[in-house]
């Protein structure tokens, strides 16, 4: 009865099965075979035997209910049958208007294919016999850029949930390997005053020792309902508080993601610089990094509230000190979000 399947997959009970089982449980309770909160051994054995007698569907060897042929036929029926498969949809976007492609993957076509080539050649991204590597990357970017679920990706790309989840994991691993190589200080990062400061009279000489900026950015996150409370940020939505550092070329030099949206900026910053595991790029003495957050002072880090050491000597005691601080704060705050 029913089609065999390795591992024993339980069919869902229908209403009749539930009523039969409940009636049998009541009988066993009245017979005293449920002395505490559980049935005793005799009670369970009676339930198994009587349920099989009543329904003729209990499989004693697998300890499950055998499904009917109709149930198996419904489960084995092909589901993803759309003619517009994921690769066909991707091909349509590649040949279509650039705005459509950008809306789907949050990047222009040329950057997508440059990224694809880099991941294939250097970071192990590959597809399979039926799925090209470009579709693997497309699935990954589609989920990441729109904060979508695997279920939505299965419908869009016409794959099973297992396949979509596997390709997403493969694409994500390749992107993480890429991130380890590019989110680092560039050559000569600590050696000289950045030209963006050196050639701008608004910053020189006040920021001549500054080499970058750090800020925390709240990024929307999809969190299970039972774990959402710590991730609810200041705007009432679930977010991650991501700390990032960048140089004045607006290239990221460090990133730490995963913290709850309610976590304080100073806690994340202190954790990052005090844990060698995360390889935070500490500036050498004599250099400073602008910190766009109002927290306690750490050596070698310049907090925008005090502007900078050199600037304090020039501006201290002047009436327009607070105004100048606001101007610098406005200018510098755009560095990280713009990156």
UniProtKB/TrEMBL annotation:
Every DUF8040 domain range: 81-176
First and last residue of the signal peptide: none
Residue span, Myb/SANT-like domain: 13-56
InterPro entries: DUF8040 (IPR058353), HARBI1-like (IPR045249), Myb/SANT-like_dom (IPR024752)
Coiled-coil ranges (or none): none
PANTHER family in the cross-refs: NUCLEASE HARBI1 (PTHR22930:SF221), PTHR22930
Official protein name in the record: DDE Tnp4 domain-containing protein
Species name: Platanthera zijinensis
